[in-house]
Specification:
The chain is of the alpha+beta class. The protein contains 14 helices and 21 strands.
Length: 673
């Protein structure tokens, strides 16, 4: 688009390119070399001294980075040339070579910049007023947000460098890609609406929030195009990471509920100018949101720039469950666009995860959890980081019956009177064959707080019907880690342990627990629960949540058994040793056997956790995920571009410390005379 230079009346009738209406389609513009530009002796002499052609000034006026100069003049920077222009007289004042490097092999001297037209119909006063009103409305109604993206953009002095193909400088390339790929493309595909918000933080010596919770729409698109110019936000100074990270966390925490997806873009073109534990700070942010937060750290500079800090920030974010990626695009606007598009796609995926496909309404992620770092060492005994349950606090265990298509209770072998475990003196009710007492004395009604006689017949009937099953359980005393260590699309995962019943000092009163008396058993388990807020909070609904998983797991186990049996039957049909060897080496499929444990928590009430053995990730390989990936499966042509974008995000180029480092904070002296 052609811009109206600063200070020119939009309604002026004066002829010439300097007085065109504010935005004109590029197809109606006259060729650059034919555009009108007056020169005087001073301007011509300066150009001749510095080897600058008039066409360079005409290009700078048409495509250059615009900012205000002294005495109401305009300053344009483009193609290694700085042009001072007097729009009131349509006259060149002076020109000189830019101190910001403009490479011959890349940047504006190698490729024409990508110039995007504004959506002029969204520049009218009534549209801008609607957008302003919508901003206030959304800030007052955070429960209606579906996503919030916080974009941290490096605007240090090195972002003025003209070395990006398809852009006029580094900062221009970033805001062009954000406008085109993060906003316009999503609006065209109707994957974003006014309930999706964007905040922009500019990173220099200090962090500045220049855009706060603005709804995505064409007005926002136009604003991002305006931010391509240096009129209001010119790159200068240092690029300090820590203030930007602090501001990013503060901005993300404006929305404390859990019903909107979050994303954080952290863009830099070099190492931080300040010092600090940046990885640890990013980990603190990620630990507050987990999988709900999508993080993309992008480092764009010449070969040899050190982006190890960004890479460490990504690793730390991943260790707390955030979906985090690092990307290092080449000095090319389209390469950067692939990464920006991938972030937009990841945010769409996160939004989909948080949407109830039955109702179309947003689901609310639980915010009452703390996260531990992946790889944190396991405890061998209970401490203050664990919830412990015993006696009447453990209501029982359940598994799934394929025959009944329902939960069935696992036989409780504890004393019905005093909760003690099975001993050599334990006796079981001969009538129901379900209730157990630790001794004959506990069996008498006088010494037992419970009278099971009225339930005896019912328990016997349930046992016969298979609604109660006799299955060994490692212990009826359990511990659940307070922090979660894993998070999927639907469930959060905690560590779960049975207490070691073989310990001679294992107490039944866990209120008096001591480390030497509270060792866990060798086998490790995980406890899974819903990632989302249970609207009703009813215990029956919590059990119902696990029902579908248990049923599906049981069906899958049956299918796996049939598959294994089929392989075994085929094995018998082949006599050749090589065929038998081949079949013997084919993998058999086995599914874990989950259970549901009921506990009564003093503060939280009745809880139900799905538990299953913990897999050793060092011994198992992941063959699929929730996004449809299957190892070895060929992607379709339509999926190839997205796959390449994701691959770029996961690839880190080899880097050499200190090579090609850019000095932050350098400014050129403006010459006008």
């Amino acid at each position: 688009a052609v811009r109206r230079p600063l200070g020119v009346n939009k309604q002026s009738n004066t002829q010439g390119p300097a007085h065109l209406v504010e935005y004109m389609p590029r197809s109606f513009q006259c060729p650059t070399e034919l555009s009108s530009l007056l020169s005087d002796d001073h301007g011509r002499d300066r150009r001749e001294e510095r080897g600058i052609q008039k066409i360079d000034l005409q290009r700078a006026r048409r495509y250059g980075m615009e900012e205000a100069a002294h005495s109401g003049r305009q300053k344009y920077t483009y193609g290694g040339v700085v042009f001072i222009y007097d729009s009131s007289q349509n006259r060149e004042v002076t020109s000189y070579r830019s101190s910001d490097v403009s490479l011959v092999t890349s940047g504006t001297q190698a490729a024409e910049p990508i110039m995007l037209d504004k959506q002029v119909q969204y520049e009218h006063a009534h549209v801008l007023q609607w957008h302003s009103d919508k901003c206030r409305e959304m800030k007052s109604k955070p429960g209606t947000w579906t996503s919030h993206s916080v974009l941290v953009i490096d605007m240090s002095g090195s972002m003025r460098r003209d070395d990006v193909n398809g852009a006029r400088c580094r900062s221009d390339g970033v805001f062009m890609a954000l406008a085109r790929d993060f906003v316009k493309s999503q609006l065209d595909k109707k994957t974003r609406t006014s309930t999706d918000l964007i905040s922009v933080i500019v990173m220099r010596d200090r962090a500045e929030l220049v855009m706060s919770c603005e709804p995505i729409g064409w007005v926002l698109y136009n604003k991002l195009l305006d931010m391509r110019e240096w009129t209001n936000h010119r790159p200068h100074g240092a690029g300090n990471y820590m203030p930007a990270l602090d501001m990013a966390e503060k901005t993300l925490l404006q929305y404390t509920q859990g019903s909107c997806a979050l994303s954080l873009l952290f863009f830099s073109d070099g190492r931080p100018s300040d010092r600090g534990d940046f990885a640890g700070r990013m980990g603190e942010i990620a630990s507050k949101f987990g999988r709900r937060l999508t993080i993309a750290c992008i480092g764009m500079a010449e070969e040899g720039e050190d982006f190890s800090t960004l890479y460490q920030m990504v690793d730390e974010a991943k260790s707390y469950g955030a979906v985090a990626t690092f990307g290092k695009p080449s000095l090319d606007a389209d390469s950067l666009s692939h990464l920006i598009s991938s972030l937009a796609s990841s945010l769409t995926t996160s939004k989909t995860e948080m949407t109830d496909l039955g109702t179309g309404k947003s689901k609310t992620v639980r915010m009452d959890v703390s996260r531990e770092k992946i790889g944190a060492p396991d405890d061998s005994y209970a401490n203050d980081e664990w919830w412990t349950y015993a006696n009447e606090k453990v209501a029982g265990f359940w598994e799934w019956s394929t025959a009944l298509n329902d939960f069935v209770r696992i036989l409780d072998m504890r004393c019905y009177g005093c909760w003690k475990g099975v001993t050599k003196d334990s006796v079981r009710c001969k009538t129901c064959q379900v209730v157990t007492y630790c001794s004959a004395s506990c069996r008498t009604l006088s010494s037992s707080p419970y009278d099971h006689q009225q339930d005896c017949a019912g328990l016997r009937s349930q046992l016969k019907q298979g609604k109660i099953v006799d299955k060994p359980v490692e212990s009826m005393r359990v511990a659940i880690r307070k922090t979660i260590f894993g998070e999927g699309a639907e469930r959060m995962v905690r560590k779960f342990r049975f207490f070691d019943e073989s310990s001679p000092h294992s107490p039944w009163d866990l209120s008096k627990i001591q480390p030497e008396f509270s060792h866990f058993s060798t086998l490790k388990f995980v406890a899974k629960e819903s990632r989302f807020v249970d609207v009703s909070g009813a215990y029956a609904d919590r059990m119902e949540y696990h029902r579908e998983f248990m049923r599906t797991q049981a069906i899958a186990s049956q299918m796996a058994l049939k598959f294994n049996n089929a392989l075994d039957s085929v094995f018998a049909e082949f006599g050749e040793p090589e065929n038998k060897t081949f079949l013997a080496n084919q993998p058999r499929i086995h599914f874990l056997s989950p259970m549901v444990v009921e506990v009564q928590d003093t503060n939280l009430g009745a809880l139900a956790f799905l538990i299953e053995p913990m897999l050793d990730v060092a011994k198992y390989e992941k063959f699929n995920n929730n996004m449809g990936y299957v190892k070895g499966q060929k992607e379709s042509i339509n999926e190839l571009a997205d796959s390449l974008a994701n691959l770029a995000l996961d690839t880190v180029a080899d880097q050499n410390d200190g090579l090609g480092a850019i000095e932050e904070g350098s400014e050129e002296e403006e010459e006008e005379e």
